[in-house]
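Supplementary notes for students who missed Thursday's class. We covered one full example, reproduced here. Read the sequence, then the structure, then the short commentary at the end.
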Amino acid sequence: MDKASAPSFAPVNKGPQTASSRTGSSNIDSSQPGKSIIYLLGCLLLFSVMNVSVFNIALPDISRDLQISSSLAGWVSTGYAMVYAIGALLYGKLADIFPLKRLMTIGIIIFAFGSIIGFLSEGYIWLLAGRIVQSAGASCIPALAMMVPARYFAPDKRGAVMGSIASFIALSAGIGPIVGGFVAGELHWKYLFLLSLGTLVVLPFLRRSLPTETRRSGRIDIVGAVLLAGAVALLMLTITSFGAMTALLYGAFCIILAGGFIVRTHRSKEPFISLSLFAKGPFRYAILAIFLSSVAGFSMMLVIPLMLKASFGLGADKIGLVLFPAAIAAAFMGRIGGRWTDRFGSIPILLLAALLMIGGFVLLAGLSWIGAWVVAIALILPNIGSVFIQSSMSKLVSLLLPPAQLGAGMGVFSMTNFLSGAIGGAVATTALDWGAAFPAVLLAMACALLLQMAVVQFVLRGKAAAAAAS
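Structure (token representation):
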């Protein structure tokens, strides 16, 4: 079983500690949130994650109504994803200093404000502005949702909580296309913005459930934050414009800003992100492992709908129905995977999850030609594997990080998820554009997971055990 003490950023003590609340060197007390916080976070994730996929369905309608090109309409999703990745990192770092209750409140209000801008928008510029403001607020939800179990729950309970959170993410991704298609078809795509206002209903209950914390000492290196945010944004632009000449320009500026960030980090007494996170310890290997698995998982989300359309001529509504059973299965199994992580440890569950995903990709590559129903069944394995990886890796990362760097490290973890998804999606779709067959792309994903298994088994297992022993 994974062993580590809970982080020392504790809520203000409003009552006496109980024996069951003292875990290692942590200061978890009777004011820690109860199980209701899991469902509140799940509701927030439902709105946040679904807000990505519902607009993907509406892009053709947006392009037609605003009389803009498909590439410009695509920025409704691309711009959101870019700010989402940067925001996840920024909120994670801020959580090392500021109380979670305050950060979540600010983020949710910004999210709702962006939704109102988008709903009232007239023209493309205001629509894009609404989506970017939405993302600036919504990005707090996945980054800080994983901080709650890492900060307030004992290590032997953390996997189950993170598994429940991963279940909500899987459910959100599954119902997003269905909800998006229904709202855009029956009403208008602008009404998709109003779905996000549901977070305002959850906010008062969330504030009541989160403990009151004190601000920690420290400051934010603004220059370092700007350099890193610019580098991440340019990396996203490089990825999304892969194959075009502009990608070279974006890539060059990305390297310049990344170099500036490294120099700034070495010179700053309190750097935005300490490079020691990557220079020593097992954290960097955990990030490599989640990168490889997320490349495969997010590629699947793009490749499978394209395959269903190309092979069986299915529309968006039918594609959503094919994807739905696997999403429900993943949502159901998420908490079970979290419990297994608490019982057997993160490493065995990571290996099991990779095997499930590989098995699913092999079945899809070999048997998908039979019919869409085969695709629906085969997708269950990689979807369950993906949710297992999220919960087990989230717990492992939370245990590997020093308490003072928990927020920054979890922010890097969340950002890696988004960046790897963008990279995997760009590579997969480019390969298809260049004539690669769908089975070949699916088998390439399986190879990425084989590499991830090698990292977990032969590198991360030993490094994590050594870190726990010390």
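Commentary. The two ends are 15 Å apart (CA to CA). The first helix runs from residue 36 to 66. If anything here is unclear, bring it to office hours.
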